[in-house]
Design a protein that fits this description.
Radius of gyration of chain B: 24 Å
Largest interface: A-B, 35 and 29 residues
Structural class of chain B: mainly alpha
Strand content of chain B: under 5%
Strand content of chain A: under 5%
Shape of chain B: globular
Oligomer: heterodimer
Subcellular location (chain A): Endoplasmic reticulum membrane
Number of strands of chain B: 0
Number of helices of chain A: 22
Helix content of chain A: 55-70%
Structural class of chain A: mainly alpha
Mean pLDDT of chain B: 84
Largest sheet of chain B: none
GO cellular component, one term (chain A): endoplasmic reticulum membrane
Low-confidence stretches of chain B: 1-6, 132-136, 192-197, 486-493
GO molecular function, one term (chain A): dolichyl pyrophosphate Man9GlcNAc2 alpha-1,3-glucosyltransferase activity
Order of helices and strands of chain A: HHHHHHHHHHHHHHHHHHHHHH
Helix content of chain B: 55-70%
Number of helices of chain B: 19
Order of helices and strands of chain B: HHHHHHHHHHHHHHHHHHH
Membrane topology (chain A): Multi-pass membrane protein
Keywords (chain A): Endoplasmic reticulum, Glycosyltransferase, Membrane, Signal, Transferase, Transmembrane, Transmembrane helix
Number of strands of chain A: 0
């Protein structure tokens, strides 16, 4: 009985925070002619409702792809269609072909925000609680505390309920995938992840760990016999799900190619705008974009991504446990974020989700990473007029994690830095080492506070108009690179047989 | 390693910070005309000389709080100058720039520090009483979430009514209530047992108390007495021309009186005993603030309400005078007086229910019966505040926060007193609030009557809640008169 009341209070707190953030502005508000992501989502509802399926991804007179053409997989389009049906019932003017372009009103905003909230209630929030209660350790109060911290992660709230997107759908489905795999329901888990993949193609960042984990599990069960059977079952169900989602487009191979072309715009270059990955940061010193040809850029990015993803994936393949799986999710998505092609700053949410899942075991590092990830999106948030919710939710999250998870009361052993500490044992005691880490954390927080205030309050010098976004990007990139090293270290240095193994799998 | 949830020091700060963060997130929520009221008062006190404060009428929202509040606004206006000077111009009616909104909202959040401090003091005073005797409601040995001090702090800090009235609708009740709470706590902190003995009464103490009260009044009203403006000030403070009930009827006795009058008049018309042409049309339900007359039952004048109010609180006052029972008895008396004034007062605003709910929280963590009364009063009282936030955008917020508070109060008090608190009838009544909310918020706006009879949902809410509030009032009196005299039990209070 106690648990239910605590869980419901956490859910209510999470929903209240989300809805309160939604009072603020959204991307592209009152900014014709292009507006922003909010208008893009509204436009997709218009397209999905009024045009036949085979025209959704094509450039036609009715569907001008240069005005927010669909660039997510079909499931997003189906979701938009569903929302459009409801919109039509309430106010047809919202999805009228052509004439509804740039439609803005308070009731429409309410409708759009409600669709995000419903997706959260149906998909993301149940997954979070299922994960915390069935796949994490500790007392029930600890589990509820972890769930509350995950629910109040600022990055996802600000992007979904501020900027306006539906990341909670794809991340929620991915989380269902993790829950499924962790509970031993491999088929359902892979099904959920396939749906996530068909909602946003960025979920490919998570796909390698899913693949390696399942393959590793099949191999462990013996490639001749049960393992093979499992492998076949999973492969068939994944293929079937793909086929089902892409069914309307499978009639012509041209269609499939066109959709893929929209999903992976390789022509757009290594990066756009300021993003906290290596290419953008490197570009400050060495102008890669002009030095290398587009094909060379593509190859370089592919090679480096592959290089950084490989160790983690191989380790997972040899040892498919939940702990390894979660770490591999972080490492894979972080490597993709840092080295891949055409990465947007919002893609940091993809590593952020698995890091949320590590909050129980690595509270300090997880909190640190999650705060930096929110900070890395500051330029975007400032553009959308979300300074106030950003400041409040970040401070609240920091305080909540430090208090509820006693993030600062961790010894170096709990920081999983065993071997690393051994290297420095000569000069530092255990206590001093963890003290050093905590000091670094404090300095990092202070630096973020200063940079945030400066970005919001000060005008950049005329010679360097992009000074603050660049500083934010470089700062975040340094942190992300360090996180990549740290999480890889934790994953790769795990001894073959861990005593006190986590209970799952 | 001890989880922080069990440590003594951090939880109060966590609760206070948590609710403050929520308040900060609500900065951009809907605000009512009270926002403009306070902006106007900032402007009037800043730009006009003191002699003009209670005469200024450029805006329709004239100064109608006593002088100390005017001085408070005057103090705030100096800080306001750093945010946006334009808000201090009296002629800038309905001025609401982002800086203005930020400043006003922050002023409520920051002044709530007084409220938070008062709760801390109040809690430590309560704990001091517990430590001196083996009372039932001990803090020790209990898990944090079910300690009385934790529950009380949460019930006060996270009070739903206070959050939506202060931080969405816009008012300064938290700060004012904090001052009240501090005065209660300070008064009893000097006495270890919290009792007031008749024997210790002396003319000297009476004179000292009296002079303190008189000096305070003198400081507050002094300048206006000197300027000879007292009649004007009083007419602004007590606007009797506004009618027996507010545009939205507060759920008190007069709301029930009004509806009985309406029903009787409709019956009278149906049975042919009254002439429909002689009846005034839609006077009380028109949603306007004005004086009106009842049709069947006798009309009620301000004097009648005063007499009724006094009659309702006199028994409690006498009880406290002749059978003093320390801090608890004093608080019980405060609750009854507040509720009595709410029930029978003239032109009562529904927000006044908070004056009864907040002190009752302390009694609720003490006695089982008071917990039961608290659950009924707080749930119905908070629900009666729903019509204050009528915008669609705020609907989820008020439902979510109401659920949060209600779930917490029910589960924590149930755990504290081990077992069911409310009877089946009471539970059914409270559950009836859910269909009422669905009808008023979701169903009715979709019907054609929404435009012709917009007052119906307010009427339904008011009447339904008036039943609960009246019932709580009766329960409080019964518990007052049946609680055995505590002086015979020694020092334990």
């Amino acid at each position: 009985m106690d648990n239910w009341s605590l869980v419901s209070m956490c859910v209510l707190l999470g929903l209240t925070t989300r809805w309160a953030v939604s009072f603020n502005s959204y991307s592209g508000a009152s900014k014709p002619p292009m507006f922003g992501d909010y208008e893009a989502q509204r436009h997709w509802q218009e397209v999905a409702y009024n045009l036949p399926v085979h025209e959704w991804y094509l450039n036609t007179t009715d569907n001008n792809l240069s005005y927010w053409g669909l660039d997510y997989p079909p499931l997003t389009a189906y979701h938009s269609l569903l929302c459009a049906y409801v919109a039509k019932l309430i106010n047809p003017a919202w999805v009228e072909l052509h004439t509804s372009r740039g439609y803005e009103s308070s009731s429409h905003k309410l409708f759009m925000r409600t669709t995000v909230l419903i997706a959260d209630i149906l998909l993301y929030i149940p997954a979070v609680f299922l994960y915390c209660f069935y796949l994490s350790n500790g007392s029930s109060k600890k589990k509820v505390a972890t769930a509350l911290c995950i629910l109040l992660y600022p990055g996802l709230i600000l992007i979904d309920y501020g900027h306006f997107q539906y990341n909670n759908v794809s991340l929620g489905l991915a989380l269902w995938g993790v829950v499924g795999l962790g509970s031993g329901w491999d088929l359902l888990g892979s099904l959920a992840f396939t749906l996530a993949l068909n909602y946003k193609q960025m979920e490919l960042y998570h796909s390698l760990p899913f693949f390696c984990y399942l393959l590793g599990k099949c191999i462990k069960q013996g490639l001749v016999g049960r393992g093979l059977f499992l492998l076949l079952k999973i492969s068939l169900s994944v293929l079937a799900t793909f086929a089902l989602c892409w069914l309307p487009f499978l009639s012509e191979p041209q269609q499939v190619l066109q959709v893929l072309h929209r999903l992976f715009p390789v022509a757009r270059g290594l990066f756009e705008d300021k993003v906290a990955n290596t290419w953008c940061s490197l570009n400050v010193l060495i102008k890669i974009k002009t030095l290398l040809s587009r094909d060379a850029q593509l190859l370089l990015s592919l090679a480096l991504t592959f290089l950084f993803v490989l160790p983690s994936s191989i380790k997972l393949l040899t040892k498919p446990t939940m702990w390894q799986f979660k770490l591999a999710l972080v490492n894979s998505s972080l490597a993709f974020f840092l080295f891949s092609f055409q990465v947007h700053e919002k893609s940091i949410l993809l590593p952020a989700l698995p890091v949320c899942l590590l909050m129980n075991e690595l509270p300090l590092m997880a909190t640190w990473f999650l705060l930096v990830s929110t900070f890395s999106m500051l330029p975007l948030l400032l553009k959308d007029g979300l300074l106030l919710p950003y400041a409040v939710t970040s401070l609240a999250f920091l305080f909540l994690c430090v208090y509820l998870l006693s993030a600062l009361h961790r010894s170096s052993q709990e920081l999983h830095l065993g071997s690393c500490y051994n290297l420095t044992r000569g000069c530092l005691s255990a206590r001093n080492f963890s003290l050093l880490v905590k000091c670094a954390f404090g300095i990092s927080m202070a630096a973020m506070a200063v940079l945030s205030t400066a970005s919001a309050a000060l005008e950049p010098p005329a010679r360097l108009p992009d000074l603050f976004p660049v500083l934010v990007s470089i700062f975040s990139c340094m942190h992300f690179l360090a996180s990549l090293l740290y999480f890889n270290f934790v994953q790769l240095t795990e001894p073959p047989s861990r005593r006190g193994q986590k209970k799952t799998n | 390693m001890a989880s922080p949830m069990n440590s003594d020091s951090g939880w109060f700060l966590a609760l206070a910070l948590g609710v403050s963060f929520i308040k900060c997130l609500l900065i951009n929520a809907y605000h009512s005309t009270d926002f403009e009221v306070h902006r106007n008062w900032l402007a009037v006190t800043h730009s006009m000389p003191v002699s003009k404060w209670y005469y200024e009428a450029t805006s329709e929202w004239t100064l109608d709080y006593p002088p100390f509040f005017a001085w408070f606004e005057y103090g705030l206006s100096h800080v306001a100058a750093y945010f946006d000077k334009e808000m201090l111009v009296v002629r800038n009616l309905n001025y609401a720039s982002p800086a203005t909104v930020l400043f006003q909202r922050l002023s409520v959040i920051v002044t709530d520090v007084v409220f938070i401090y008062a709760i801390k003091e109040f809690n430590s005073w309560s704990c001091a009483i517990y430590r001196c005797c083996k009372c039932l409601r001990e803090d020790k040995g209990k898990e944090l979430l079910w300690k009385p001090s934790f529950i009380l702090a949460t019930l006060l800090l996270w009070n739903f009514g206070l959050i939506i009235v202060d931080h969405i609708h816009f008012q300064y009740n938290g700060f004012l209530f904090g001052v009240l709470l501090l005065s209660v706590a300070r008064h009893f902190q000097s006495k270890t047992d919290g009792s007031v003995h008749w024997k210790s009464f002396s003319p000297f103490r009476f004179v000292v108390l009296g002079s303190i009260v008189l000096t305070t009044f003198a400081l507050s009203f002094g300048p206006f007495i000197a300027l000879g403006q007292i009649p004007q000030v009083l007419s602004r403070l007590f606007p009797f021309k506004r009618g027996l009930c507010h545009a939205y009827w507060a759920p008190n006795v007069w709301a029930l009186y009004n509806i009985v009058d309406k029903v009787l008049s409709m019956l009278g018309v149906k049975l042919g005993m009254l002439d429909i042409n002689k009846l005034p049309k839609a006077t009380m339900t028109g949603g306007l603030v004005q004086e009106f007359q009842h049709t069947v039952l006798p009309s009620v004048s301000p004097l009648v309400t005063l007499i009724c109010t006094l009659l309702s609180i006199l028994p409690a006052l006498f009880h406290m005078w002749y059978r003093p029972s320390g801090g608890r008895g004093f608080l019980r008396c405060i609750v009854i007086c507040a509720l009595g004034s709410f029930m029978f007062g003239w032109h009562v605003h529904e927000k006044a229910i908070l004056m009864a709910i907040l002190p009752l929280s302390w009694l609720a963590v003490e006695h089982r019966e008071d917990a039961r009364t608290f659950l009924i009063l707080s749930t119905t009282g908070h629900f009666s505040l729903f019509p204050l936030l009528f915008t669609a955008q705020e609907l989820p917020i008020k439902i979510l926060l109401m659920l949060l508070f209600t779930i917490f109060s029910f589960t924590s008090l149930k755990k504290l007193f081990r077992g069911r608190l409310v009877s089946s009838v009471e539970a059914t009544y409270l559950l009836g609030l859910i269909p009422l909310a669905v009808i008023c918020e979701l169903v009715y706006p979709l019907t054609p009557w929404h435009h012709t009879l917009p007052f119906i949902p307010l009427l339904l809410t008011s009447i339904y809640c008036a039943l609960g509030v009246t019932y709580s009032f009766i329960r409080l009196y019964i518990s007052l008169l049946t609680v055995p005299s505590t002086t015979s039990k020694g020092k334990c209070q």
